[in-house]
Amino acid sequence: MTVSNPLLAGAPGPLLVRSAPIDDPGALLALIPDDDAFAWVHRGDGLVGWGRTVEFRTAGAGRFTEAAQWWSELSSHAVVRDEVDVPGSGLVAFGSFTFADDTEGSVLVVPEVVIGRREGTAWVTVIGTGITAAPDPVPSSPARPPVGTTFADGPVDSVSWQGLVAEAVRRISDGDLDKVVLARDLIARLDEPLDARAPLTRLAAEYPSCWTFHVDGFFGSTPEMLVRLERGLVTSRVLAGTIRRTGDDTHDLALAGSLARSSKDLEEHEYAVRSVADSLAPHCTNMFVPETPFVLHLPNVMHLATDVTGVMRDGASALTLAASLHPSAAVGGTPTAAAVRLIADIERLDRGRYAGPVGWIDARGDGEWGIALRSAQIEGDGRTVRLFAGCGIVADSVPGDELAESNAKLIPVRDALTPGE
Questions:
Q1: Is 81 exposed, middle or buried (0-12, 13-18, 19+ CB in 10 A)?
Q2: Of 68, 66, 46, 67, which Cα lies nearest the Cα of 317?
Q3: Is pLDDT of 304 > 70?
Q4: pLDDT of 281
C-alpha cells in the first residue's frame, strides 16, 4: 500500500472542497489537459478532472477494503462547501482496480479540479489543502492524433489463444466449471507518445451509450455498469452473450433475434445475472431481476443485457458494492473461484486493470463503477499501448468463433488508435 496524501503527511488541516455551479462548459473532454487528467463521460455528461491533490495506491486481496477505509477517513475530515448537491459534486475520487489480487496498480485519486455536468446542471469543484480560485472552464489545447500506429499480437498469438479456448471447453466438459472468461491482448506501437485525449474523444463520440474513462494511463469505453449507487438506489447492468454486427440493418436485426434465442448465449448470460443478483442481495431490499434480457445494440457488436436494480439496505458505499460484485461471472466465470483459478492457470496474460472496476465515488458514498472493458493501458514512454478483450467460454463454445468475437471487441480502441481514421 502506498499513500501520497498531504493530510497524512502533516499538512495544515483537512482537505478544503468547494463545488459551485457554472454555465454549460461544452464538451467535457475538450477541457482536460494532455497530462494527468481523469475522465468518466456518458452521453456527454459525467466528470473530468486534472491534477492530484491526494492519491492512494493498494494491492492484494484487501485492496478494496483498504481503499474504502481510506476514502471514509479522508471524507470524514474534509471541509466541503457544496452549492450543487448532486451525485458527483463535492469531494470526489476517480479510481481503477486490478482484476487479480496479486497485481499492482489499484488506485484512488482526488484531483485538484473536477468539472461535471448532469442533466443540464454543470459545476466546478476545487480541492486542496488551502483556498484556491476555481479555473475558468475553457477548452484545452487540441489533442494530438496518434502517429504511425502498428498492431501485433501479445505474447499469446491468435492461434495459441484458440488452443486455450479449446482447453477451457475441455475443462468445462469434464465438469470442472460451467463458464470461464478468457482474455487476450493486442500490442499497439506508435511513433510518438500517445495523447490519450485523442482516443477518448473518438470513443465518446462513436460509443455515446458507453462510459468513456481515463485513470492513470488506463482508458477505454465500457458498455457495462458494474454498479451505480445514487441516493440509495442500486443499479447494475449485466452483459454476457455477444454477436458481431454486419452494418446491414436488416441482417443485424435478424442476428439480434438469433442472439436472443441462442441457448449458448442465454446460458452464459444467466450465469452472469445470477452472480450479480447473489452478490447484491445481502446489501439490498426490493431487488428486481428481469426474467429475460434485452439486446443492447452498439456500433460494433450486440450484447444480451439485463439491468438489475435494488434499494440499499445496509448503507454500503458504491466502492463496497463494487468489491462485492468483483469479479462477476461476466468477467470471471461460474463458479467464480474455479473460474479465476483456471484463468490464472491457462490464460498466460497479466490483465492489469482490464476487467476490474473503474469509475468514481463521492463523499456521500454515491458513485459509478463500470467494468473496465474495451480498454487499453498506456505503457512506458507512451509509445506502447496494450489493448484487451475477453470472451465467455461455455461447453459449446467454438474457438474460431470466440476469436472473431474478441476481434470485434477490440475494434473500438483499435480504431481510436488508428491514424487518419
A1: exposed
A2: 68
A3: yes
A4: 92
Instruction: Residue 373: name the closest of 189, 203, 229, 193 by CA.
Output: 203
Q: What's the rounded mean pLDDT across residues 375-388?
A: 97
Residue in 59, 364, 360, 354 with CA at minimum distance from that of residue 181 = 354
Name the E strands within 101-224.
106-110, 113-118, 121-128, 150-153, 179-189, 211-215, 218-222
The three cell numbers of residue 119 are 442533466
In 3-state terms, the chain is what percent helix, strand and coil (to 5)? Answer: 30, 35, 40
- Residue 16 has phi, psi (to 5 degrees) of -105, 130
Chain centroid, CA 209 distance in Å: 13
Q: Give the tens place of pLDDT for each residue, 164-221.
A: 999 999 999 999 899 999 999 999 999 999 999 999 999 999 999 999 999 999 999 9
Here the cell at position 82 is 457544496
Q: Tell whether pTM > 0.85.
A: yes
Eight-class DSSP state of 246: -
Residue 4 pLDDT > 90, yes or no?
no
Which secondary structure element, helix H or strand E, spans residue 407, and what is its range?
helix 399-416
Classify 16 as helix, strand or coil: strand
Q: What is the pLDDT of residue 9?
A: 38
- Retrieve residue 194's grid coordinates: 500517445
Torsion of CA 112, 228, 181, 246, to 10 degrees: -90
- Active site residues per annotation: 179, 224
Mean of all residue pLDDT scores within the chain: 93
Instruction: Give whole-number Cα distances, 149 to 189, 206, 305, in Å.
Output: 5, 20, 33
Is the CATH code 1.10.455.10 the one for domain 2-135+147-416?
no
CA of 385: how far to CAs of 214, 256, 324, 335, 408, in Å?
14, 32, 30, 32, 18
Q: What is the pLDDT of residues 344-374, one digit of tens each?
A: 999 999 999 999 999 999 999 999 999 999 9
Q: What is the pLDDT of residues 145-168, one digit of tens each?
A: 999 999 999 999 999 999 999 999
| Residue type at 387 in one-letter notation | L
Query: What's the chain's length in residues?
Result: 421
Decide if 275 contacts 328 (C-beta within 8 A): yes
21 preceded by cis ω (within 30°)? Answer: no
Residue 352, CB-side half-sphere exposure with 13 Å CA sphere: 21
- Phi, psi torsion values for 321, nearest 5 degrees: -65, -40
